[in-house]
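Pasting as-is:
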Amino acid sequence: MSDRITTRDLRGRKGGKPIAALTAYDVSFARLFDRAGMDILLVGDSLAEMMLGYKNTIPVTMDEMLSLAAAVVRGSERAFVVADLPFLSYQASSSDAVRNAGRFLKEAGVQAVKLEGGGPVVETVRSLTSAGIPVMGHLGLQPQSEHQIGGRRHVAARTADAAQVLIQEARQLEDAGVFSLVLEKVPWQVAQRVTAAIAAPTIGIGAGPYCDGQVLIMHDLLGLGDHLKARFCPAYADLNAVITEAVARWTMDVAERRFPDLEQSFGMKEDELEKLGGNYSGAG
């Protein structure tokens, strides 16, 4: 088994070879992405929408996240696995945050957790890192706060004042111990300044080309699902079309008795068939 990528490895990529990160939610895709050379597999709370059919990320529970995070760990060998702390698993108190983050490491086997926000979240991050739990920060658009901010369509930190706040929060999160920082849907000029301001690698999603790495939702990359895709996520494949065509062809083959072929079917030995009696050859 190959050694997994570590936080030290990721920190060493600052200003060097960009980090590639992708969400994963099950064994099959985790295995494929791992073999393709992915650096980070993020078990994002986006699984609420992509896998479980919720309208947003807010309803997903710790138990739901833990189950799928464990599957991703089992399906990968090399990639660094991070799991999102879901809504209200860390906001109420630092003790809640440590307990729930600890469950991800102990029960699911992930190597780090991610949580959204700066400000009051900084001390929560400090509690987690003090307990030996690696933390990935997340600034800019914060999907768990969509009801408070009025949806997900806006770009964060578009004014100079808001950009200064974001840069300051990035520094505070680094001081609290984050090993990396996701920047979501912020102007590229702001992401560039944050990247220069902190020693921890930045990972962008809709934050331009000057971050230390990039992360996407797997469904956006692969053209999978019917959700509304952001303009910064061009599909590298069209799995919707591939899967629909394959299933439609198989359905037709079943309807017209082309599947399964007798050569692909299990049969009995002739002597056992004689004992059974009757004539079932070519029955239709």
